[in-house]
Amino acid sequence: MTPKPSQRLSRLPPYVFAELERLQEEYRRLGVDFISLSIGDPDLPPPESLVEDIVKALREPYSHNYSTSEGESYFREAVAQWYKRRYGVDLDPDSEVCVLIGSKEGLANIGRAYLDVGDTALTPNPGYPVYTQGATILSDAQAVEYNLYEDRGFQPSFEDLCAGQRTKLLFLNYPSNPTGAVATERTLGDAVEFARRNNLLLCYDNAYGELVYNAQMCLSPLQFADGRECTVEFNSCSKMFSVTGYRVGFAVGCAEAIGALKKVKSQIDSGVPKFIQKACADALLRYFEGEYASYLERCREVYRRRLEALSVGLGRLGFRVSMPQATFYLWLHVGYDGSQLARKLLEVGVVATPGEAFGSNGKNYVRFAVTQPEHRVAEAVERIATLGLEPEREASKPPPI
């Protein structure tokens, strides 16, 4: 007999994917060839120079010892230089930069750093589950969700948001997972002002910032007046260089928040492997030239073509499709419970993510990730066509705001 798990675990919502995983395994035993458009894990290889630098760094004597929870100084300095060139933001690599074991880790640990029992955090619906669950519920705090609607371009209305006396954090994610929306300049300006006015820490998830199809559209809250005083921004090399498995990200911004995050991490982890930090630091320093300058442009073009193929194909089947402004996700309104469609898709060997995994406002949506070659995306559309799905009815569209 073992003790009962903590009450905070019981507060976590049911695992949306459990039934789908069971069904997927049943179909796999029957010999079904699955095309997975579910997980946001790039299938494109990283830059060859980065791979070579990893191998080179791995052979160095320093590579096999502990790093530190805040990260090596050379990586933090590279991050600061990258932000200067990318956003025109000056950062102190010692007090305003922290290395993360992937941005997800930092997003969860910022909750530990700031939230007490009875505190609240404002989290987007739909949104990446770590804000509500990993950062808030697992910190014994309460998530207060704010709604994002398609008719508003999935932009929040700060006039409708209310920060209580115990509200400490505001989570914001653009480019958005799952919707693919990009924050407008007004959204980011209003977010900084709202956080400053209500004494909140703006936790900005910018992990997809380099997968924007119009590079001029992607901004950082740190570029706005007072942004650095109230914002901690989370970023990552994962999507930037197609190295999700390396688990290397970074948090930048408000020195007080970075210090609090470092204090939490010092009790939990011993940092990202040094050889990964060294290779990724060199990649950030060479990001705007040579192979690296063209690498992401090629990646964006591949994802754009795949998204276009999926959008056109689903449009021909009667779905109402909008091309995303960023990311490699297609957020599709299907007119009924997206979990039902996800189950139907398994019958023809196509895996997609039910929208309710991202919150109640995603219930009638499905998220597709175009992390498969273009011919497999086209094949997925052909398989979906065999289901003879009823096109979305006008009456089932999201209500106008």
Helices and strands, with pairings:
Elements: H1 7-10, H2 17-29, E1 35-36, H3 48-58, H4 73-87, E2 97-100, H5 103-114, E3 120-125, H6 131-136, E4 142-147, E5 167-173, H7 185-197, E6 201-205, H8 227-230, E7 231-236, E8 249-253, H9 255-266, H10 274-285, H11 290-316, E9 329-333, H12 338-347, E10 350-351, E11 353-354, E12 365-369, H13 374-385
Parallel strand pairs: 1-10, 3-4, 3-5, 5-6, 6-7
Antiparallel strand pairs: 2-8, 7-8, 9-12, 11-12
Helix pairs in contact: 2-12, 3-10, 4-10, 5-9, 11-13
Q: Please give the CATH class of the largest domain.
A: Alpha Beta
Show unreliable segments: 394-401
Question: What is the alpha-carbon Rg in Å?
Answer: 21 Å
- For the secondary structure, the number of strands is 12
- How would you state the average pLDDT, rounded? 92
Going by CATH, the architecture of the largest domain would be 3-Layer(aba) Sandwich
Provide the structure class: alpha/beta
- List the total number of helices: 13
Q: How would a textbook summarize the main sheet? A: 7 strands, mixed
Q: How much of the polypeptide forms β-strand, as a percent range? A: 5-15%
